[in-house]
Backbone:
């Protein structure tokens, strides 16, 4: 029978396994020598490597972000050959007018009110009144004018380009046209299939 002292003695195999473990533990930190521990610039750090002293490099001239190549001048600027246009870049259907009304009520009605008369809620609280959409100058303005104002802002109105997509800006412009028609329409503008019903209601 082996004594306790003999049973505590390590075998050569155990000693070898222990040595391998020590070596692996020593090498383990070397597995993390990747990009997260290398020298790097923080945003807007200066650099002595580039002649302009900036670490952040400007994009190559002519670079266009994926999905942002805007070749449709009318859709993205409201102009054709540099001239403000009265054309819409796509056909306006009932669904587009409905979407335009929804966007108008969210973004435009606080100043322009729901009828486009320029007496919105914040105007009633002291903000300067915008011009009514129903004045002759704006009734004659091309649709591209409204798109351009929504895009770039005008006077006290700031740009909504970051809030409203180009397509929705055109839908709002179409809805403004509908508001203008609603305030200056006549029975002659009503389809024959509905004019009789309106005439009956008036009586």
Residues:
């Amino acid at each position: 029978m082996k004594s306790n002292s003999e049973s505590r003695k390590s075998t050569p195999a155990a000693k070898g396994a222990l040595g391998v473990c020590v070596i692996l533990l020593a090498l383990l930190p070397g597995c993390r020598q990747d990009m997260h521990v290398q020298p790097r610039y923080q945003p807007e750090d200066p650099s002595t490597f580039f002649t302009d002293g900036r670490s952040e490099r400007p994009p190559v001239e002519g670079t266009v972000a994926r999905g942002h190549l805007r070749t449709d001048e009318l859709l993205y600027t409201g102009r054709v050959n540099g001239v403000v246009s009265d054309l819409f870049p796509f056909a306006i259907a009932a669904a587009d007018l409905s979407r335009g009304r929804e966007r108008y009520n969210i973004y435009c009605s606080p100043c322009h009110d729901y009828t486009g008369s320029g007496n919105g809620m914040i105007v009633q609280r002291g903000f300067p009144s915008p011009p009514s959409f129903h004045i002759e100058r704006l009734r004659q303005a091309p649709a591209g004018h409204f798109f351009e104002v929504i895009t770039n802002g005008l006077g006290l109105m700031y740009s909504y380009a970051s809030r409203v997509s180009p397509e929705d800006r055109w839908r709002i412009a179409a809805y403004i046209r509908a508001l203008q028609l609603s305030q200056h329409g006549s029975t002659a503008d009503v389809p024959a299939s509905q004019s009789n019903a309106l005439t009956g209601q008036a009586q």
Observations:
- The chain has ten helices and two strands.
- The chain has a mean pLDDT of 87.
- The longest strand covers residues 79-80.
- The beta strands are 79-80, 83-84.
